[in-house]
Specification:
It contains two helices and no strands.
């Protein structure tokens, strides 16, 4: 594992522990995790679309 990966992994664990210590339950951290995950996917889709548009020379129709 690279240093950056380990840093991210450790920080994730710390965040999860702090959520659990608040006794809001596992569902809260899972909810946040899934929101971030979906946002990540949306961002990736947008960048892919803009890249494709740049490559073909056509403007992005989805806006």
């Amino acid at each position: 594992m690279c240093y950056l990966c380990m840093f991210i992994f450790k920080s994730k664990c710390v965040v999860n522990q702090s959520n659990q210590s608040r006794l809001k339950g596992e569902s809260n951290s899972m909810e946040i995790e899934s929101k971030l995950w979906f946002r990540n996917i949306e961002n990736r889709r947008k960048t892919l679309k803009t890249r494709l548009a740049d490559r073909t020379g056509q403007p992005d129709r989805t806006g």
